[in-house]
Amino acid sequence: MGRGGVRLGLLSAVTMSLASLILGGSGLEAAADGNASSEYQVKAAFLFHFAQFVDWPAESFKGTDSPLTYCTLGEDPFHGALDAALNGKTVGARAFRVQHFRQAQELQECQVLFVGAGEKKAVLSALESVKGGPVLTVGEAEHFVQDGGMIGFFLEDNKVRFNINLDAAERAKLKISARLLALAKTVIGGPKGR
User: Across the chain, how many H-helices and E-strands are there?
Assistant: First the structure.
């Protein structure tokens, strides 16, 4: 099988595993039993997969072997689940790195920024601090994508779902795969106002 076939097969497998997360594969219903830690384990898995469906411009990284950096702002709602989900994994030749910030500082070094629901007051300042930069912004505050975030998590029928603001991603020069767009509950913007 050629290189393109291997890549397509891998992409299909990743798409299926991401779809199974969304469609409630076994054991992945979020907070069905009120367990917030299982919700954040699912969200950590989503964040890992999102990196496989987003292309960053080359200038987003200091070098070809620079890690893809995930940042959280404020109190870490994952309590280590994001670090564990990304430990030892790569996307292409890039390793993953996780950093946790209390303030909206040095966020420009991030490729993925997660803003938890507990940081409602910091959402707009965090989005402003990375505005125009190639940073995939992911959050869980109500109206996150309407406020300019790129991917907003929410719970529906005890399952983690997400919406995408394609216009915000395009302004940041990020390319989101059509496969990921197809899995979103709602997509804001894009061709013909999708």
Answer: 6, 10
Residues whose CB falls within 8 Å of the CB of residue 52, separated by 6 or more in sequence, listed in order: 11, 14, 91
User: Which residues does 32 contact at the CB level (< 8 Å), separation at least 6?
Assistant: 38, 158
Q: Enumerate residues 6+ apart whose C-beta is below 8 A from 99.
A: 69, 70, 71, 72, 109, 110
The CA distance from 132 to 192, in Å, is 23
For the stretch 59-105, pLDDT in tens is 899 888 899 999 998 888 899 999 999 999 999 889 999 999 887 76
Q: Coil, strand or helix: which one is 116?
A: coil
Q: Indicate the length of the chain as a whole number.
A: 194
What are the respective helix, strand and coil percentages of the chain, to the nearest 5?
Answer: 40, 20, 35
In the DSSP assignment, the letter for residue 97 is E
Domain 3-193 = CATH 3.40.50: yes
Question: pLDDT tens-digit profile of 13-55?
Answer: 444 445 454 444 333 444 444 566 789 999 999 999 999 999 9
Residue with tokens 């954040």: 40
Element (H, E) at 51: none
Per the confidence metrics, is the pTM higher than 0.85?
no
